[in-house]
């Protein structure tokens, strides 16, 4: 009888040792997936605003076709780059960030080129879209920050003892963080040449 009690106690101990960390890892991974969904939603909103912005600009100005095409091409590439939140790797996140960076760069060129069209800067539709775009960029920043905030405790669980044993046993892996673009540590050049 004593032998069965000891075996039962060992089994219960092992279950407690693995079940609690496993459940904690599952909850943390679900938080990561949810916040990744928020990131994708913010980027999706930007992708949906771009065609409206481009149409408004096209309708209000004799515009440089190459700039508009670059914006639409960058948008198309960015919307094709997707990540499965349960399998985010540093390489996939870097690819996603590079595609989104292309959109940011193309939009910046578009907005700089718009400066040559004073009638466009007074167009209410354009101004509203521009405000929406700025708001969306802030939402993207917030979503990325929250994603990193959720990844931190998840990665801590995956890497600390005794949860690391359960993580390795059940295939939980660290998640990468969003990082700034290369060169972001350098101050931007400001040029006030309005010629």
Structural account:
The chain is mainly alpha-helical and 195 residues long. The chain has a single domain (24-170), classed as de novo design (two linked rop proteins), CATH 1.20.1440.20. It has six helices and no strands. It has helices spanning 2-60, 65-80, 90-114, 118-121, 124-159, 163-170. Helix 1 runs antiparallel to helix 5. The longest helix is centred in the first third of the chain and has 59 residues, at 2-60. It is rod-shaped and about 90 Å long. 19% of the residues are buried.
Supply the CATH class.
Mainly Alpha
Strand segment count: 0
Q: Residue share in helices? A: over 70%
CATH architecture: Up-down Bundle
From the N-terminal CA to the C-terminal CA, the straight-line distance is 94 Å
Q: Tell me the major beta sheet.
A: none
**Strand residue percentage:** under 5%
The CATH topology assignment is de novo design (two linked rop proteins)
H/I helix tally: 6
Q: What pattern of helices and strands is seen along the backbone?
A: HHHHHH
The Rg value, from CA coordinates, equals 24 Å
Average pLDDT over all residues: 83
CATH level-4 homologous superfamily: LemA-like domain
Structural class assignment: mainly alpha
Q: Could you outline the blueprint of secondary structure elements for this entry?
A:
Elements: H1 2-60, H2 65-80, H3 90-114, H4 118-121, H5 124-159, H6 163-170
